[in-house]
Fold:
Amino acid sequence: GPLACDWEAAAKIKTRTASAINLGVRIIYSSTFTLKLCFSESAYQHAFRPSFGFKNNISRIYTPDHRLNHGNIIRKIRIMKIEDVMLFERIAALNSISAGGAACGLSATVSSDRLKRLEADLGCTLLNRTTRSLSLTDQGRRFLQHARDLLDQYEVARHSVGRMSDVPAGLLRVTAPSLFGMKFLPEVLSSFLTDYPETRLNINLSDEILNYTAEGIDVAIRIGKLKDSTLVVRKLGDSQRVLCASPSYIRCNGMPSHPSDLEQHNCIIFVGEHSWRLRNDQEDVRINVSGRFDTNSAEMATKAALDGLGIALRSLWDIAADLEGGRLVRVLPDYEVPSEMSIYAIYPPGRFVSPAAKAFVNMVDRHLSALEFKTPLAGSGYGK
Structure:
């Protein structure tokens, strides 16, 4: 009959007598993750001989009729739950029980109870906890390394079968630069959640370099020149920049017809960029520009252009809505500004790329590709 025992007893069976295994011992897992050692009747009789000493290792025995039955003995044991491992990984990454619990949709009290349950299941303390600090124990650090591997493999297994193999679902953690997230992502997020109702999004807007693995990030959107890295990267396109100004500024100062005309205009200088390069099929020129307003804030540079303070060189994703709404107009639309930076989607190394992550990146890519077609080349009515 089926018998479930603890690891110590299982090890004793294996080390004390190989003949017991030869007589019919096998290990199975049930759908509820309860470990069972399944004995044939002869194996059970052998294991319970006085010389084997196995019977004394069983502290509690349960049978369907609550009686000791040599033919049908079950002892249930505690096996760690994957949800508790996920919670521990989040607590360790965020260095907070309440924050880790919130990331898993749990209260601080429930999170604390589940952490204690995991530690009881493992038989060790994973975290040193005081009222003011939280830190991993040596055992906690070792377990965390394996826990992350376990969770990655769990995701691979979970998404490799059935309807989950290609349907975006579950929680997706995304990080992006602050301004990009505020200006460009809202429309993407709305479309994504509408198209994929089984997904949830956690968005972290930050201009800092994050440890994607420690933070549990699934997708990171970054803009710049990417250095060599072990990260898995997909280039979404160049960060296209355009010249723009408010209709009121153009009415008062006229619309430039050639890059050289910029020398006669107030130009909004961003992070000391006093030389602008423009090109078309006929020429590739670099113009020195100047103006009365200089800033290291991208948000302030855009606001200055909206307020009519001059001509600005801005990222298309930053001002797309303002161009479409007529609050800004393109200047010298027949010229392009060669891009020195690109937009990338980054996946942490060694992590399973879920269907939700792939779908999100594809949607960001589509929205970026559509920017040029949604924004007018030059504003209409700016001279009225």
The mean pLDDT is 78. The radius of gyration is 31 Å.
